[in-house]
Amino acid sequence: MKFLDLFAGIGGFRLGMEAAGHECIGFCEIDKFARASYKAIHDTEGEIELHDITRITDESIRGFGSVDIICGGFPCQAFSIAGNRRGFEDTRGTLFFEIARFASILRPKYLFLENVKGLLNHENGITFETIISTLDELGYNVEWQVLNSKDFGVPQNRERVFIIGHLRGERTRNVFPIGGESEQSDHQPPKIEIIGNTKNPNGTSKGTKSVVCGSGGVVGTLTATDYKEPKQVAIKQFGILQPNFNQCGVVYETDGIAPTIRAYQGGGLEPKIIQRGHGYNKGGEHDIAPTLTRNSYHENNHLSDGFRIRKLTPRECWRLQGFPDWAFDKAQEVNSNSQLYKQAGNSVTVNVIAAIAKELK
Questions:
Q1: Any idea what DSSP says for residue 92?
Q2: Contact at 8 Å (CB) between 53 and 6?
Q3: Distance CA 28, CA 122 (A)
Q4: Which has more pLDDT, 69 or 361?
Q5: How much is the pLDDT for 161?
Q6: Active-site residue identified among 71, 76, 248, 317
Q7: Residue 264's pLDDT is what?
Q8: Lowest mean pLDDT among 2-11, 157-166, 194-203, 253-262
Q9: Parallel, antiparallel, or unpaired for β 69-72 and 110-116?
Q10: Which of 5, 24, 165, 194 has its CA 20 to 30 A from that of 51?
């Protein structure tokens, strides 16, 4: 089926949709850096290219021709528990109504939308009710499900709500519920294990900056660490990481589950992982070899027993979102590391999109 990629970012929706056999006819992305990555990764020649969605006229939309699916990870900052949570009072929140406008004109068979989990309870559910009622008035029956990226083949704890709108009168079938291969049957979140602190290796420092977590289970939200002055984190030992905390200073082991990647611009806001120091893998007996250098003083702090920490690279963050290395290589040619980190955080997880897209028939 033919789809239109709104709020396209770097094309996470597109990769997942194309993996399921669907065809992109056009995309819309206002950010010039994300657009540069998108066009480097995807063959967009001859496609509809849109920038500011609010400036697209109804007449232009009518000229797009037949569209079967409208995709859109509409901006979530307005609904996020990490933001001001002003919803539709926030200008970014009203961008949902641009999707509604496109749908009212194009009348696609499906709407395939994504947002943060916090959208469901924002303003005691009023915001989500507004979204559902708006789609209902447009003639769409709606279903939704919260899915976690860690259940779809990537080691990242990222919960997002996915919304499918079915145009009434079309012969469509329900998509949800679906589950990933690694989804836990008991739905109980694993515990968080704290194994050290980069500011004070002998104990926890005042506050919880630079906490080092072990690989004993799923860790919380993967944000980036500012290597000049890490942001505070809040983690309870053997407790569940609260989703509204800022976890920029947390460091994780290489074989654990990464938390949610978020978007940042510059400032060294890269996530970090733990790795062994030099000499650890002499003889090649271990699968993971260190990549630290003698010039890494400011970004690689000693912990204990020969452990060091290092930042996750932009490539690793893209992998955590399910992007193949060839896509990252193309984006890297046209963007800086700070933009690549931001773009990974803003993207949807390709694996999850692909799993849902296979059900759209």
A1: G
A2: yes
A3: 26
A4: 69
A5: 96
A6: 76
A7: 61
A8: 194-203
A9: parallel
A10: 165
Give the tokens for residue 321: 């979102």
Record the tokens describing residue 350, joined without a space: 């390709």
Instruction: Return the structure tokens found at 72.
Output: 């859109």
Residue tagged 């294990």 (tokens): 193
Q: What is the 3-state secondary structure (H, E, C) of the chain?
A: CEEEEECCCCCHHHHHHHHCCCEEEEEECCCHHHHHHHHHHCCCCCCEEECCHHHCCHHHHHCCCCCCEEEECCCCCCCCCCCCCCHHHCHHHHHHHHHHHHHHHHCCCEEEEEEEHHHHCHHHHHHHHHHHHHHHHCCEEEEEEEEEHHHHCCCEECEEEEEEEEECCCCCCCCCCCCCCCCCCCCCCCCCCEEEECCCCCCCCCCCCCEEECCCCECCCCCCEECCCCCCCCCCCCCCCCCCCCCCCCEEECCCEEECCCCCCCCCEECEEEEECCCCCCCCCCCCCCCCCCCCCCCCCECCCCEEEEECCHHHHHHHCCCCHHHHHHHHCCCCHHHHHHHHHHCCCHHHHHHHHCCCC
Active site residue 28: no
In one letter, which amino acid is 219?
V
| Residue 308 identity | R
